[in-house]
Amino acid sequence: MSYCTTGNPEVANLFARAQAGDARSLEQLMVQHEGLVHLVARRQWRGPLGYEETVHEGRIGLWRAILGFDPGRGVSFSTYAGVAIVRKIWQAVKLRQVRQEKLEQVWDWEEEASPGPGVLSWLLVREVHEALQAQVQGLPSRQRRIVEAYYGLEGQGPQTLAELGRQLGCSRQALSYHHHRALERLRHPAFSARLRELLGRNRRQDYLQVLQPARRRS
């Protein structure tokens, strides 16, 4: 299905609702363009990813495309989303290759080609830390500062919202709102794929579970 939404207020409104956090509109667009994901996946399926993994990464690319699409530019959504899906698939391929290279380096360190659990645990912890830092850096500046201070990600001790509020001159309620929105964004499938993969929670069922509260509110 190809959308060029200029002059089509109904479709433009559907995208606007999805981008505003309406889970039903987001799911509707995901279902409508599921065929595009499979089309791109069949063309791009190669390398270390299985077909189902490729489709899953393509769905994440579609999620991101829906959230970032501007109907007013006069470009068909299928064209815009196709690029995003291809990019996400190849990002996943590259990440898998990099992880495999790191594991091979760990194996080379061991004389018996058998990495100890401590070495592998250290490698995983480092990757998780790097993925989390990259994800937090993608937050809007205010949300990023709140998350970094609240969880002590800057190397200092964690701060309460009350303490942070006194520093910033904001109410605790306002900071709580932005903190909640930041966590929603960090959990969202479109932004948490790499971290979820490292933690073994990168399945579509996990994403649907994350979206359940939004569905109940809609």
Q: Which tags fit this structure?
A:
disordered C terminus, flat, mainly alpha, 0% strand, disordered N terminus, Four Helix Bundle (Hemerythrin (Met), subunit A), 218 residues
Give an overview in words.
The protein has 218 residues and is an all-alpha fold. It has a single domain (9-138, 191-217), classed as Four Helix Bundle (Hemerythrin (Met), subunit A) (Up-down Bundle), CATH 1.20.120. 73% of the residues lie in helices and 0% in strands. The chain contains eleven helices and no strands. The chain has helices at 9-19, 23-32, 34-44, 51-68, 77-109, 117-137, 141-150, 161-168, 172-187, 193-199, 204-217. α1 (9-19) packs across α2, α3 packs across α4 (51-68) and α4 (51-68) crosses α5. The radius of gyration is 20 Å and the shape is flat.
Summarize the structure.
The chain contains eleven helices and no strands. With 218 residues, the protein is mostly helical. Helix 1 (9-19) packs across helix 2 and helix 4 crosses helix 5 (77-109).
